[in-house]
Design a protein that fits this description.
single chain, about 130 residues, mainly alpha, about 70% helix
């Protein structure tokens, strides 16, 4: 995806771009690049790609993430081929999460609690929101 602002702009709160915005934009990107009119297939592709971006944005090693799909070689191949094209998305999602952590720390929450609270917040947003 391309933005009119940088990752640094999001981290430093110079641009308001949140998780819902990112998920919407990623869903649109998946829809335009995955050649399928099947909505269920789109949702599966989006969830898979989003999960990969989240894992990488939270410093999980790609091979560790991929090991969860070892039973499905076509999915592993798909993700391996897609990964190099997701660097900007991973960086932006990381910036969004970092901003959330920083907001909590600036509100006097200890860093460890801020990280855990951001992870809980992320899980609740993702659970409640279907991509556009």
């Amino acid at each position: 995806m391309q933005w009119e602002f940088s990752v640094e702009d999001v981290v430093k709160a110079r641009a308001e771009y949140g998780l819902a915005d990112f998920r919407r934009d990623l869903a649109n990107e998946v829809r335009s690049n995955v050649l399928s009119t099947d909505e269920a297939q789109h949702l599966r592709s989006f969830n898979l790609i989003y999960d990969m971006c989240y894992a990488l944005a939270t410093d999980k090693k790609f091979d560790d993430f991929l090991s969860g799909y070892a039973y499905d070689p076509p999915t592993c191949q798909f993700l391996s081929e897609l990964k190099p094209h997701m660097d900007d998305n991973v960086a932006m999602l990381g910036a969004i999460l970092q901003r959330q952590i920083m907001d909590r720390v600036e509100a006097q929450m200890p860093l460890e609690h801020a990280v855990l609270d951001t992870a809980r917040w992320h899980a609740s947003v993702v659970a409640d929101q279907q991509p556009a």
